[in-house]
Amino acid sequence: MSKTQSFGQKIINDANGRPVYAKTHVQSELIKAIDEHDIIFVNGPAGTGKTFLAVCKAVIGLDSGRYERLVLTRPAVEAGEELGFLPCSL
Question: For residue 34, which of 46, 52, 17 has the smallest C-alpha distance?
């Protein structure tokens, strides 16, 4: 069984027309949570697809009319590294 068969349907096509699928069970759960809830908080290691999948679902929601606008935020909290100058912190 291929990854695409074991983790569900296509989410969206990328800019080159290739289909985007959830690659893990946890990514499938993230997609399900986005579909079922208005607000979710996701925590996990870098490079696991959190932002990528959220943006894919946001694009789908905008195209379908589910959302009128999106509010994109990132935490401004140090996680062990120096953040440097932030324009919003005058």
Answer: 52
- Render 7-40 in DSSP notation, one character per residue: T-S--EE-TTS-EE---SHHHHHHHHHHHH-S--
- The contacts of residue 70 (CB under 8 Å, 6+ apart) are 58, 61, 62
Read off the pLDDT of residues 65-84 as tens digits, 9 standing for 90 and up: 988 888 777 666 666 666 56
Q: What angle do CA 2, 46, 34 make, to 5 degrees?
A: 65
Please tell me the pTM assigned to this model.
0.68
Q: Which two tokens stand for residue 43?
A: 């925590």
* Contact between residue 70 and residue 34 where contact means Cβ atoms under 8 Å apart: no
